[in-house]
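Reagents: none. Just compute today. Nitrate/sulfonate/bicarbonate ABC transporter ATP-binding protein.
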Amino acid sequence: MSGAAVELNGVSKVFGTGDAKVDAVAPLDLMLKAGQTTALVGPSGCGKSTVLRMIAGLEDPTTGTVQIGTETPKALARRGAVSMAFQDPSLLPWRTLHSNIALGLKLARKPSNPDQVNALIDLVGLSGFGDRRPAELSGGMRQRAAIARCLISEPELVLLDEPFGAVDAITRNRLNLELPPLWRDRGTTAVLVTHSVQEAVLLSDRILVLSPRPAAVVADITVDQTTIPVPNTPDFQRVCDDVSDALGAVAA
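Predicted 3D structure written out:
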């Protein structure tokens, strides 16, 4: 299934009232293209995850609207066309890996399809582990399973909140290279929150650098995924430097 464009029109978020009021996100006007991966990077606490949650329909904007294709986020969620993956894989400990991934179909209100689950298990490199429970898997394997659960329903939109943040650096680098083609090759739209500049460049077609709270876009950087994402090359380092410079400017 092809992805859907994401449009934010004057979207802002304020938490609390009076002396306790926190301006989390300044009014944002953004168009995220269908089928592309967009990364949100910025200082800790700047509002990246709040933006992601508003796109998901888990938070209502204080002002403005979010539109995904022709629908609201909640309408998209009701028909199971949006999936999320978090830093914590959140696999159910009593379910097998196969059953955890199949849960993605149930949550999306789609019929059970064991063959589809098995095919995706093979695709994420977990062949032979379908009957294992989460406690029997490494951190990287659990994260692969979480991404598989996220993609099993063939969503139009995938939202990724630090999905590889809890695994070791070696595993994270491997997942950064191996897993993104799973949603890219399907033309799925993805929005990624990350603190890693290299991860943003590896995974994304576009990187939005956000200011400290209230979040506003201070840099909009395009990544040519056909030529740039080869680590340790001059072109790759140039884009990383552009992102780092933008982050350094907002931190100064």
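Residues 234-251 form the longest helix (18 residues).
Action item: order primers for follow-up constructs.
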